[in-house]
Design a protein that fits this description.
By secondary structure, this protein is mostly helical. It contains nine helices and no strands. The radius of gyration is 17 Å and the shape is globular. The chain crosses the membrane at residues 6-28, 40-66, 72-89, 110-133, 139-159, 171-193.
Length: 203
């Protein structure tokens, strides 16, 4: 059981990689006050956990009922991430930067996309959770506990982002935003390519 837990945790950590996602979070919440950024962190982690929880216990059923495949999820997620990354490159990542009044758009919406889905609970994480949970109820519980621990670690990392942001300064945060936008765009395109390859059985 301990071995299964360690393997599950390490698998999730490698796929989700909260450390590499921290700069993306910092770029997305740039300009938001501490209260909003904390809400975004909390909301994104809870939603990511809820997504994986559902797929651990009924992933295969969901795919079967809706007639979708993991490759289709990769394609959709890839397009979404690429568009968000492109917007970040152009400095569009919050309601204010889009000249939209805050009462017209919830500033914590970014917690749902792109943070919770597909960055934290993307196709890779979902596929990993389904694979790890296969077998019996014990495996499902171990998988959930392992992901819950990773979510907790990720949450505390996100809460430290404000301190890191102040240390780096506005200029450096702008640079990070552009760089992460480029990286997210690249990740999105790669997800799209992988999805197309899988869907059409291409090498």
């Amino acid at each position: 059981m301990v071995t299964k837990f360690i393997l599950s945790f390490m698998a999730f950590f490698a796929i989700m990689n909260p450390i590499s996602n921290l700069p993306a979070y910092m770029a997305i919440v740039a300009g938001d006050d501490k209260k909003i950024s904390r809400k975004i962190a909390t909301k994104s982690i809870l939603i990511a956990f809820a997504i994986i929880f559902v797929f651990v216990f009924s992933g295969h059923l969901i795919f079967k009922v809706f007639g979708i495949t993991l490759d289709a999820l990769r394609i959709a997620g890839g397009i979404l991430v690429a568009v968000i990354g492109y917007n970040m490159i152009n400095g569009v990542h919050s309601p204010d930067s889009q000249n939209l009044p805050n009462d017209k758009k919830d500033p914590t919406d970014v917690a749902v996309s792109p943070l919770a889905m597909p960055l934290f609970a993307g196709p890779g994480t979902i596929a990993t959770s389904i694979t790890l949970a296969e077998g019996n109820l014990e495996y499902q519980i171990i998988t959930i506990i392992a992901f819950a621990l990773l979510c907790l670690i990720t949450y505390f990392l996100l809460l430290s982002a404000d301190t890191i942001s102040k240390w780096l300064g506005q200029g450096m945060m702008t640079i990070i935003t552009r760089m992460m936008g480029l990286i997210l765009t690249t990740i999105g395109i790669q997800m799209l390519i992988d999805g197309i390859k899988g869907a059409f059985s291409l090498k």
